[in-house]
Amino acid sequence: xxxxxxxxxxxxxxxxxxxxxxxxxxxxxxxxxxxxxxxxxxxxxxxxxxxxxxxxxxxxxxxxxxxxxxxxxxxxxxxxxxxxxxxxxxxxxxxxxxxxxxxxxxxxxxxxxxxxxxxxxxxxxxxxxxxxxxxxxxxxxxxxxxxxxxxxxxxxxxxxxxxxxxxxxxxxxxxxxxxxxxxxxxxxxxxxxxxxxxxxxxxxxxxxxxxxxxxxxxxxxxxxxxxxxxxxxxxxxxxxxxxxxxxxxxxxxxxxxxxxxxxxxxxxxxxxxxxxxxxxxxxxxxxxxxxxxxxxxxxxxxxxxxxxxxxxxxxxxxxxxxxxxxxxxxxxxxxxxxxxxxxxxxxxxxxxxxxxxxxxxxxxxxxxxxxxxxxxxxxxxxxxxxxxxxxxxxxxxxxxxx
Length: 402
Hints:
The protein is α+β, with helices and mostly antiparallel strands. The protein has helices at residues 13-25, 63-82, 98-113, 124-130, 150-163, 206-212, 288-295, 298-306, 308-319, 322-328, 380-398, and strands spanning 5-9, 30-35, 51-52, 86-87, 91-95, 120-123, 138-142, 146-148, 167-170, 174-180, 183-188, 191-195, 197-200, 220-231, 242-245, 257-260, 266-269, 273-274, 340-352, 363-366, 370-375. The strands form four sheets. Strands 5, 6, 7, 14, 15, 16, 17, 18 and 19 form a nine-stranded mixed sheet that branches. A six-stranded mixed sheet has the order 9-2-1-13-21-20, with helices on both faces. A three-stranded antiparallel sheet has the order 3-8-4, covered by helices on one side.
């Protein structure tokens, strides 16, 4: 493969992981990473909760389940190598009544099938031993679930990429991709170059970049924002780790939970509501193109028609932050409304198909010369190093671009 050139698009943790893996393992390949912002980890990687997921929600055998479990092992190695803060604070998923307890038992069985270490069901008394201020009739305890600084980790992985001879070009938005024979013409800024392999890890822009390259229009990215509240330092003792609700099958998103961050702050949230822009992190910034694409997508209207109760629930938290506290107090009754302040916002790059169904598993598609990561929502950050391993292994195995 000596003398070959590869480009990776996207400077989030997945893109940096892929570029790093290529530079280290693809034998003599010249690797260039393109990122449209002036820094790495500017979007989903820098706006997530920092949770390292253990992998117990996901369908056994799915890419999510397989790559999440493998990703945790690779991530632990990487944080050790780079001295990145990492804490196994543990997580409980709390059932408030017997109906939720029945669903929790099924999640436990899935966790066992996925090989999640140390996971077990605990009763009310044991809940108090793990989280003294939490209440519930049954909980799933995952003692190895962790938290990390994903931005610091991304920058550490970028150091590895540069050390292996890779190049990172910041402020370079890729606007054109065209395969011509055995080469891919990539346009970024005012210049066009040819590469033998291009791997697009474009997150919120993944569907647009795929269309530019001639890929199908679906799945589409429909951006959902999630706001968080921050618990005051005086109340942070109420939460030791992560306290999550049992997923409700009536709703497409998880709902409000309590999450300790690596800096010790505790977040409450997020909600999930349609964003007026793919990158509208501040206020309600309206981006006409982003809104037109969502409203002109029949799949979105099919999704909305099926999820009116969920929309009403999320709208209440979007309009009134006190609803966050009301929901959180179901699990931690001692929490009060005056102990929180408004926190950050994240935007989820959620893929949706033409039927209006949220795509659950990771989606990686493309040809021998162009690979697209079309869907990598949570646990995408946890799985990043395993996603990179998977993509690079397949690219090297095919050798169609070598």
